[in-house]
Amino acid sequence: MAIVISLGGSFLFESPEKVRALNKVIRNSDENFIIICGGGRLAREYIKFASLFKLKSEDLHLVGIKSTLLNALIVNKVLGGELYEGDPRLIKTKRLIVTGGFEIGWTTDICAAYAAIASKAKAIFNLSKEEGVYDKDPNKFDDAKLLKTLSFETLYKINRGKRTPGMNFIFDPQAGAICKKNGIKVIVTNKISDIASYIHGKEFSGTLIE
Asked: Buried b vs exposed e over 91-126: b needs ≥16 C-beta within 10 Å?
């Protein structure tokens, strides 16, 4: 079984110690892993900088992609896998592959969805700085409720809006559509331990999208 992990850039920058915890989960598992790194703060700062020069939208996307690959380089050095910079639709299953963005206009969630198809993974772990998906922004509303399960249709309603380079989604709705079509579940969580729980068939926290 392959496990695909969409490692959010914000999660990466705010919780670097969890990368070491992820390393432990991988080493203690017999599964294959594909980790897709997001750009996070690094991508947004570079995109903001590039915007000062009135670069085209395509160029801003490219800046974001390069930022994700830099994050992937660092994560791969920590985890000791294989750094991959190619098309996620062509990924060959190996013990551990670390990659980032690829195509202009694709978020790393879309890359994760295509990587899951290529590796025949049944689930994508979307590691986020939040516990899971809430019915409204928990940073703005004290009464925001964590949703344990939701459909991809509901996810699309929560995520509706125009996509721009560097934009932060719960999980990209286009990636969600790909997952729904191919029967791939998405688990949004901020707990590395949830990955091990899923592998061993135990209950996990976070939000299950299917």
From this structure: beeeebbbbbbbeeebbbbbbbbbbbbbbebebbbb
Q: What is the CATH number of the domain that holds 15?
A: 3.40.1160.10
Question: Helix axis angle, 108-119 relative to 173-181, nearest 10°?
Answer: 10
> By the 8 A CB rule, do 11 and 127 touch?
yes
Helix (H, G, I), strand (E, B) or coil at 35: strand
Q: Which residue has the tokens 């590691």?
A: 127
Tokens read off for 51: 């915007």
Q: Please state, in angstroms and rounded to a whole number, the distance separating the CA atoms of residues 113 and 127.
A: 14
- Domains of the chain: total: 1
Beta bridge partners of 35: 5, 98
pTM given for the model: 0.92
Residue 179 sits in which domain range? 2-209
Q: What are phi and psi of 125, to 5 degrees?
A: -95, 120
pLDDT tens digits, 159-191: 665 455 544 457 888 999 999 999 999 999 999
